[in-house]
Amino acid sequence: MAKTSILGLYEDPEDGAKAMDALHAVGMDPNDFDVLTGTPYPEGAFGEHVPQHRLFRFPVFGAMVGFTLAILFTAGTQLAWPIVTGGKPILAIPAMLIITYELTMLSAVIMTVIGILFESRLPNFAPGAYDTRITEGYVGVVVSVDEGRESEFEEILNTAGAMETKRA
Amino acid sequence: MRQGRQLDEIRINKELLNGALETPAWWKWAVLILFTIVISGFVVFGIQTNKGLGVTGLSRPVFWGAYITTFVFWVGISHAGIMISAILRLTQAEWRRPVTRAAELLTVFSLLTALSFPVIHAGRPWRIIYWIFPYDFARGLWPNVRSPLVWDPAAIGTYLTGSTLFLYVALLPDLGVLRDRTTGWKHAMYGALSLGWRGNPRQWRLQTVAGVLLSALMLPIFVSVHSIVSWDFAVTPGVEGWNSTIFAPYFVIGAVHSGVSAVVTMMALMRWLWKWDNFIRPEHFDALARLLIVVAVAWFGFTIVEILFSLYTLEGPELAFRDMQIFQWPWAGLFVVFLLTGFFIPVTMWLFKGVRNSIALMFWTSILVNIGMWLERFLIVVPALARKQPFVYTWGSYQPSIVEFAMMAWSFAFVSMNMLLFARFFPLIPLFESKEAMIFTTEMKIGRTTIPAVLREQE
Predict the structure, then answer these.
(1) ipTM of the complex, rounded to two decimals
(2) What ranges do the domains of chain A cover?
(3) Among chain B residues, CA nearest to A142
(4) Domains and their CATH numbers in chain B
(5) Which among A42, A102, A110 has the least Cβ separation from residue B155?
(6) Helix axes B247-274, B201-234, angle to 10 degrees
(7) Residues on chain A touching B224 (C-beta within 8 angstroms)
């Protein structure tokens, strides 16, 4: 069934928290409603579902990829064009360590940023109901409901003190 | 006593976006002047490329001069970003909030400028590509990974990429604010750049974790970059004064000294130009000055140790080099100026609270530090090469030519112009950090006095 996104806009964060409580109380799935703010409020300030993430796996994976590529690059190029220096091995380990370290870190950072975007669910250019006043200090409570039940949920949001509701 | 006023989010948006949503009257003139200098720099570079390095003061045996000095100088300045942003973020220092974005930005533009100098110095810039990429696939010839000239691009490239991504991730929430405050093509641009940011708890949580995680990843890179730059010199056994085991930490701490001073310079300018008195306050300068005292003393300790241990060897060439660097004209004069501007004048002044809380005095002392730090790099690079060596058929001194001075002016104009262009489109002070500070800042009554207090979430 098609879904409609409804936004309730609150001037007072306390009212936003009340709206979240009301949505919990009617048995809404926590994945179907969210709170939007222009400021990072302390976790749990709105009684929201605390999101879990797996961000820490990304830099580890990135580091492994970078390390492997760096070893292939540094060892491969030295073996492809050996610079023979009397009594010394073809592979210059100290020099390889430096480049391997940098490429490992580079790959870890790049994968971390990819992980941040992935775990933040970005990019997302079809975000549903939204109001620009959210970045001016208002609190938005957005709920995704089945078509035909919009009025029921607008009522819940209004009862909690919404100054305005919007559909998208 | 609380130094700033408690502002609401509308007011914070209005004040901190005054550079991005409006064009201050002075901005166009400042950018025009800087643009003229930048273009002149490109013309001078074109002349140098056409005529060759003979237009510089470089000559046997001094083949590294003002260009390499300026390269090391800008790499040093770039250490401001991560020092301020990452360390203060990890330690949850509250006073970091207005400083982080500008410091990260300074890192990015300083590194871009620093990377230009080996290219300018090479004389035939197209040959730079040989350092990094195989230039002749037919012969299978590859870059020599044993050369510091390969390590440098690897380190600086990593630092530049990481810093740029770090800056962008922290900018996402503010891009959302700009998207909501603009119309037309600007709205479309900010909308695309913000990637559809909405500000839900998941995004805010990831933003917080990202700040800590990226800081933790960037710190080891930060330490490695100036270490590797120092090894451009330190792995050269044949030049007295360069082949030193303490060069890596010495360069890193020197970079922090110059970088944090550059942040002070920039903060003073930001406060004056955009009238951000509510956000950049004397307490921030006071905190930075205290940090600088510690950093400067540590750096001075390394300077003394570096000289002391070279004398302790009692090796003739090393003693002759130090004699020339410290006691012979013109190096002796530069050495005195270096010590006074890099350490004695600013650190002595920072001991006084009145100086630490004076924006004008902090601005000028931070400028002094960077004059001193440029001279420090010059005194490491040039006298060591200028000293007469046995079995060298020619030797001489070195004086930067007008072309080199022009390129140095270009570098300062290039960084400043880019900062101003960035400030025209993006906020230099993180909006969400300032708003968060307002939520977490309160006042606490203890006995008969009321003090400002900062609340902190339990991790």
Answers:
(1) 0.92
(2) 3-49+128-167, 57-119
(3) B200
(4) 9-454 (1.20.1630.10)
(5) A102
(6) 130
(7) 98, 101-102, 105
Nearest Cα residue in chain B from A49: B201
**Count of other CB atoms within 10 angstroms of residue A148:** 10
pLDDT digits over B278-297, tens only?
A: 888 898 899 999 999 999 99
> What is the average pLDDT across B370-387?
92
Is residue B450 very low, low, confident or very high in pLDDT (cuts 50, 70, 90)? confident
pTM of the model: 0.91
pLDDT digits (tens, 9 = 90+) for A44-87: 888 887 778 899 999 999 999 999 999 999 999 888 888 888 88
Cβ-defined contact of A46 to B201 (cutoff 8 Å): yes
Closest CA of chain A from B337, distance in Å: 36
Q: What dotted CATH number matches A3-49+128-167?
A: 3.30.70.120
pLDDT tens digits for range B402-441: 999 999 999 999 999 999 999 999 998 888 888 877 777 7
* DSSP state letters, B360-373: HHHHHHHHHHHHHH
Looking at the DSSP bridge assignments, the partners of residue B449 are B446
Q: Which residues of B are less than 8 Å from A49 in CB distance?
A: 201
pLDDT of residue B1: 47
Nearest C-alpha of chain A: how many angstroms from B330? 37
Round to whole Å and give the CA distance between B364 and B359: 9
Q: Mean pLDDT, chain B, as a whole number?
A: 88
Nearest to B156, CA basis, from B232, B268, B57: B232
Minimum CA–CA partner of A102 in chain B: B155
Contact B158 A59 (CB under 8 A): no
Residues B20-37, mean pLDDT to the nearest whole number: 91
Contacts of B191 in chain A (CB under 8 A): 125
Looking at residue B394, its pLDDT comes to 72
**What is the rounded average pLDDT for all residues in chain A?**
89
One-letter amino acid identity for B360?
A
Q: In Å, how far is B37's CA from the nearest CA of chain A? A: 34
Least CB–CB distance from B180: residue in A34, A92, A135: A135
Distance CA B98, CA B296 (A): 23
Distance of CA B16 to the CA centre of its chain: 23
Task: Map tokens 């110059």 to a residue.
Answer: B258
Which stretches within B328-430 are classed as H helix?
A: 331-339, 345-350, 353-356, 359-386, 402-425
Instruction: Report the 10 Å Cβ neighbour count for A50.
Output: 10
How far off is chain B from A65, nearest CA to CA, in Å? 15
